[in-house]
Write a structure and sequence with these properties.
The complex is a heterodimer. By secondary structure, chain A is α/β, with parallel strands linked by helices. Chain A has helices at 47-54, 77-87, 103-107, 109-114, 120-130, 145-158, 175-192, 203-206, 229-248; strands at residues 3-14, 21-32, 36-40, 62-67, 70-71, 88-91, 163-167, 195-199, 211-216, 219-225. In chain A, the strands form two sheets. Chain A has a six-stranded mixed β-sheet with strand order 6-7-8-3-9-10, with helices on both faces. Chain B has 24 helices and 26 strands. In chain B, helix 12 (443-472) crosses helix 14 (495-533), helix 14 runs antiparallel to helix 20 (710-753) and helix 14 runs antiparallel to helix 23 (817-844). Chain B is elongated and about 95 Å long. The two termini of chain B are 29 Å apart. At the A-B interface, helix 2 and helix 4 of A face helix 1 and helix 8 of B.
Chain lengths: 249, 854
């Protein structure tokens, strides 16, 4: 099985001297193609940093990151920009849409930025899937949070990117809206063979994934296939327990 | 549509309200620039039309070839011609008509006994040219002058002076001439006059008697026309017949020269002055625009970061922001262009209101007047937005994921860099200003230093802002409690922004202060000049020929000297000669009498010995040219060269200028004699009132010139400065207005981005009134910072300008405390005013929505 994206001995450090923090400590991870991968871990585990570096939003202090066969550390700002535009889709936790553009314009934004014409059939499919046909000419501020996030998913999928990275996509949503967004991502993997990487701290969200990677203290500590919310929750409790013990010692 | 363009256009529409201030400041600046250019073009065209009309039927003009440049007379002074030439030219085959034209200064006295005109536009007198084609004036009423004492006056003068056909009045040539109005004329078909100037036409013999030096047989020019020859052919035909020193030129060339003379001197200065003020307004606008874009871009950090994360290139983000600025600039400039046509009318009205009438006529708009302001406005907008746009383009994509702090100060390193650069500029500028002002004095060094200082102050602003606001706001915290303390903290929280906002006001206030200080110093200098060098008791004056009048009759001084109340009376006339290739004003006086009514300080040599070829020179001028007693100075008069010997040196900078010659010496070179001032010393024991009454009785017969005490004379010679200052204040009001728009705009944006914080304050119990007061006081603090900086900088530069402009070293410096206090008050009040709307908007906000706002 080939990897959609991977990092090898990834190191990311912030700050200097006494205030130095090692967010990633020689992590090596593969995100499988056409699979839904969730990255979990307690706060400060480095899960967001891992995603940012894998997605070319941030650069590694050491080690290497690939998107497909492209090594990211070799790319300059311009190539990284093009890579994000053409080969990566993003869904963020909040502030996902450009407030001055309509729903439709937001969906085609990455394509428009590259000057590419959207494939009408594909666009139609996406609009159908996210169920916002009657909202196409609305502004983001006229939509609910869940609707906004569905638009963001549609936008991430619009360019048929190699990988969609989602950073806590349900963090700001109630469980029903969150479920809709996660269902969308799931069906993108199942019906469109899209590769999706999602960072989350919600076990229920992680349960939508094919594989869950657990990070702690900047290291990959566990991998879980076919997760369920209960199993993930148990695994996370183990972290808490360990932390509690460490704190007591 | 291209994505960058679309995003730019959308955010333009979405943020309309935030950009109102930006648009307005460009509109105002561009309107001013346009207005200035339109006014300049219109005036130039109007003058051109006037001179073309004046020469409409004239195909050729014959005149003396030599002109002595005279700062008071456009085109310079020329010697008159022998009238015999007229008859000779009339006989030339092909010449249809030839008429001698006498032209000089002649101010009419109105029915109320007050002189007509004399505040800029010339008051002409001359002969009524009998050939209707050569004469640009047409009789509207009455008839042409035929007998001595008869005159035709232009309709405008008749209206202003309430004179009618059959009235008698006095014409100051400057000797008083009693005239009877026999006709009223229009200029061309229907104009009241040649622009705002007045014209009195006498018979040729009368005009020669009163306006030419010999009194008969002389004319200023000969005007020719031909029915069969072209203008050029006519000139070619008459040229061989002219005596040496006399030239002929076509009517078209004469028109072009007159226009060029007026354009080059008066209009050039006038439009340059206005352009300087338009430049100041645009400079202030630049600060405002830059600030707005800096804030708007900062507020849009997350949006730009999102775009970057989604694959927008730096260039695309840069293009979006710059495109927005360009669009705003273009739109606002277009609006400004329209407003500019109104400004042109307003400026004209402003000058008319202070008694400085400009010729009327249709508005002229040239292509350059449309293109240049559009270009300047757009470039100012785009240029001001360049730095914020570059910053926007550098936004890291990750910033989309952070709760970016938009209201934060610059980093330590850039603050250090800024401090160093600003200190360097100030360290370089300050000594340059001081050295330029005191040693030398060198205007170039001073101006260069002043610019470096201004730039340094602007650069240092953010470094100084935090401290300054804390100091200036110290009383506020004590007086207004927590509201004042919060206002002070808010003003200091982003020193960069506070400084940028205040900079606009600082520049405006600095220029206002500079002119206030400079004006007061000039007034003080004039005051000093009179009190130091005017040793008489009373002064008799009338506007001189260069100032639109005709001066005082030279016969008045002897008449006054004969009064029993008067100990001595000396007229001070004005002559002109070329020294070293430059036109110089000469003071013409009877040296013996002059010494009794003026104080020339220590005199080397003897004033009494000037004679017909002696020259007295101020010590500074003599030193500058390396002259000593006995030096022979070649001089050139309108009628030719003459050598003068330096026989006396005196202290300059008084009522007399740098050159003084006797009446006897001036006699052969004069064109039209007049005195600018008659200084009178009363006999001991004669009261000022009695003396004034006695003099006024005599002066009344000499065309009613003004009789003033020494104090009144000092005041009125300084009154021109007040006029200049009021114009400057009116012009600078615009720059200050733009600065205030900037403050209001910044505050509105600040309120917008602090909306959650404001909501929190309201939620924990701040009343609406307290919130309003907090925003308003922040505005006042920012204005106080700008005003304080502007006052300090302006006072310093005002001092430097005063010193640098004073090459003789005789000027005074004055710091008008009262006026500067008013400037400070206006600055603070304006700050409070600017805070009104943002404060009101902040107070309206809904607490829950404010706290929930993302």
């Amino acid at each position: 099985m080939s990897a959609a994206a991977r990092v090898e001995k990834a190191v990311k450090e912030y700050g200097v001297g006494d205030t130095r923090v090692r967010a990633l400590d020689e992590v090596s991870v593969e995100f499988a193609a056409a699979r839904f991968t969730a990255v979990m871990g307690p706060s400060g585990s480095g899960k967001s940093t891992l995603m940012h570096c894998a997605a070319g939003l941030d650069t590694l202090s050491d080690g290497r990151a690939w998107l497909g066969d492209t090594e990211l550390s070799a790319l300059g700002d311009r190539e990284l920009t093009l890579l994000r535009r053409e080969r990566i889709g993003f869904v963020f936790q909040a502030f996902n849409l450009v407030p001055t553009l309509t729903v439709r314009e937001n969906i085609t934004l990455p394509l428009d930025l590259g000057g590419a014409a959207p494939d009408p059939a594909w666009l139609d499919t996406l609009i159908e899937v996210v169920g916002l046909r009657d909202r196409l000419h609305h502004r983001p501020s006229q939509l609910s949070g869940g609707q906004q996030q569905r638009v963001a998913v549609a936008r991430a999928l619009a360019g048929r990117p190699q990988v969609v990275f989602a950073d806590e996509p349900t963090g700001n949503l109630d469980s029903r809206s969150g479920g809709e967004v996660l269902g969308l991502l799931r069906s993108a993997v199942d019906t469109m063979h899209q590769s999706v990487v999602m960072v989350t701290h919600d076990p229920a969200a992680a349960a939508y994934a094919d594989t869950v990677l657990f990070l702690a203290d900047g290291r990959l500590v566990d991998t879980m296939r076919e997760p369920t919310a209960e199993r993930v929750l148990d695994r996370m409790k183990a972290f808490d327990g360990r932390r509690t013990r460490a704190g007591a010692r | 549509m291209n994505a960058s363009v679309r995003i730019g256009a959308r955010s333009l529409l979405a943020h309309r309200r935030r950009l109102v201030g930006t648009v307005l400041s460009i509109v105002l600046g561009v309107a001013f620039l346009t207005g200035t250019m339109v006014l300049g073009d219109t005036l130039r065209a109007n003058f051109d039309t006037l001179f073309a009309d004046a020469n409409a039927g004239t195909d050729a003009v014959v005149r003396s070839a030599d002109a002595i440049a005279d700062p008071g007379v456009p085109g310079g002074v020329r010697a008159p011609l022998d009238d015999a030439l007229t008859a000779k030219l009339r006989a030339v085959p092909g010449v249809g008509a030839a008429e001698g034209s006498v032209q000089g200064a002649g101010q009419l006295i109105g029915a109320d006994g007050r002189p007509i005109g004399g505040q800029g536009p010339p008051t002409w007198a001359g002969n009524w040219i009998t050939d209707p084609k050569l004469n640009p004036y047409r009789l509207a009423e009455g008839r042409a002058p035929a007998a001595p004492g008869e005159a035709v006056i232009n309709r405008g003068a008749a209206r202003t002076g309430k004179l009618h056909v059959g009235d008698t009045t006095v014409l100051r040539t400057p000797d008083p001439v009693r005239i009877t109005v026999v006709g009223i004329a229009t200029f061309g078909a229907d104009a009241d006059g040649m622009g705002p100037s007045t014209f009195t036409a006498l018979t040729l013999a009368d005009a020669q008697a009163h306006l030419t030096p010999r009194g008969s047989g002389q004319v200023s020019t000969v005007r020719l026309r031909s029915d069969s020859l072209s203008q050029r052919q006519l000139v070619e035909r008459v040229r061989p017949l002219l005596p040496s020193g006399v030239e002929a030129l076509t009517g078209a060339d004469a028109t072009a020269q007159s226009t060029a003379d007026v354009s080059g001197r008066f209009l050039g200065l006038f439009t340059t002055l206005l352009l300087v003020f338009a430049g100041i307004a645009l400079l202030v606008a630049t600060f405002t625009i830059h600030n707005t874009f800096a804030i708007v871009t900062a507020q849009r950090t997350r949006e730009n970061a999102l775009l970057r994360a989604l694959g927008a290139s730096r260039r695309q983000v840069l293009g979006t922001t710059l495109g927005e600025a360009l669009a705003i600039g273009l739109l606002a400039s277009a609006l400004g262009l329209l407003g500019g046509f109104g400004v042109a009318a307003g400026l004209k009205a402003l000058f008319a209101a202070i008694g400085f009438t400009l010729p009327t006529g249709g508005t002229v708009i040239k292509a350059a007047t449309v293109v240049l302001p559009l270009l300047v406005g757009t470039l100012v907008a785009a240029g001001s937005a360049l730095a914020p746009a570059l910053r926007a383009a550098r936004t890291a994509p990750l910033a989309a994921l952070r709760d970016a702090a938009v209201d934060e100060a610059a980093s330590g390193r850039s603050a250090l860099l800024r401090g160093a650069l600003g200190a360097l500029l100030v360290a370089g500028g300050l000594p340059a200003v001081i050295v330029g002002a005191t040693r030398g004095p060198s205007l170039v060094l001073t101006v260069g230093g002043a610019l470096a200082l201004l730039l340094g102050t602007v650069v240092l602003g953010p470094v100084a802002a935090a401290t300054a606001v804390r100091v200036l706001g110290a009383p506020l915290a004590r007086l207004r409690g927590v509201t004042g303390a919060l206002a002070r903290r808010n003003a200091a929280r982003n020193p960069g922004r506070t400084a940028a906002t205040a900079s606009a006001l600082m520049v405006g206030v600095a220029v206002v202060t500079l002119f206030t200080v400079f004006g007061a110093s000039v007034q003080a200098t004039l005051d000093d000049t009179v009190s130091r060098s005017f040793a008489g008791d009373l002064a008799v004056t009338a506007p001189a020929a260069g100032a639109g009048g005709s001066g005082v009759s030279p016969k008045l001084a002897p008449a006054l000297a004969a009064l029993p109340e008067v100990r001595a009376a000396a007229g001070l006339g004005r002559g002109v000669a070329q020294v070293d290739g430059h036109g110089k004003q000469l003071d013409v006086a009877n040296p013996g009498q002059l010494a009794q009514v003026t104080d020339l300080g220590r005199v080397d040599g003897s004033l009494a010995d000037l004679g017909a070829d002696g020259l007295a020179v101020s010590r500074t001028e003599a030193a500058a040219r390396g002259w000593q007693l006995g030096t022979v100075v070649p001089m050139r008069f309108a009628d030719g060269p003459a050598a003068f010997t330096v026989r006396a040196l005196y202290r300059g900078g008084g009522v007399t200028g740098d050159y003084l010659i006797s009446r006897q010496a001036w006699q052969p070179h004069r064109v039209q004699d007049s005195d600018g001032l008659v200084a009178v010393a009363l006999r001991p024991g004669v009261s000022l009132a009695a003396g004034k009454a006695a003099i006024a009785r005599v002066a009344d017969a000499y065309g009613n010139p003004q009789v003033q005490t020494r104090a009144e004379y000092a005041e009125s010679s300084a009154s021109g400065v007040d006029m200049m200052l009021s114009v400057v204040y009116a012009l600078l009001a615009l720059a200050v207005l733009i600065a205030l728009l900037g403050i209001a705009n910044t505050l509105t944006l600040a309120v917008h981005e602090r909306i959650r914080e404001l909501g929190l304050l309201r939620a924990v119990g701040q009343t609406r009134a307290q919130l309003r007061a907090m925003v308003r006081w922040e505005s006042v603090l920012v204005a106080a910072f700008g005003t304080a900086g502007g006052l300090a900088l302006g006072a310093l530069l005002g001092w430097a300008l005063t010193r640098a402009a004073d090459s003789a070293g005789t000027g005074s410096f004055a710091l008008p405390a009262g006026r500067l206090a008013i400037v400070a008050l206006v600055g603070l009040a304006a700050g409070a005013l600017a805070g009104l709307r943002p404060a009101a908007r902040a107070a309206r906000l809904d607490i829950l929505r404010a706290v929930a706002a993302a």
